[in-house]
Amino acid sequence: MPPADPERDPLFRGLIILMAVALVVMLLFNGLSKRSRAGASAASAATQTTSANSSMSGMADQTGSTDSMSSDQMAAMHERSMKAYPAKTVGLGGQVLQPTMEKGVKVFHLMAMPARWEVSPGQFATAFTYNEQVPGPQIRVHRGDTVRIVLTNHLTQPTTIHWHGLTVPNSMDGVPYVTQDPVMPDQAFTYQFRVVDPPGTYLYHSHFNSTEQVGSGLYGAFVIEPRHRSWDVEFTEILNDGTLGYTIDGKGWPATAPLSAKTGQSVLIRLANVGQMLHPLHLHGYHFTVMAQDGARVRRPYTADTLVVGPGETFDVIVRATNPGVWAFHCHILSHVEGPQGMFGMATALIVS
Ligand SMILES: [Cu+2]
Question: Alpha-carbon distance 7 to 139, whole Å?
Answer without folding.
Answer: 77
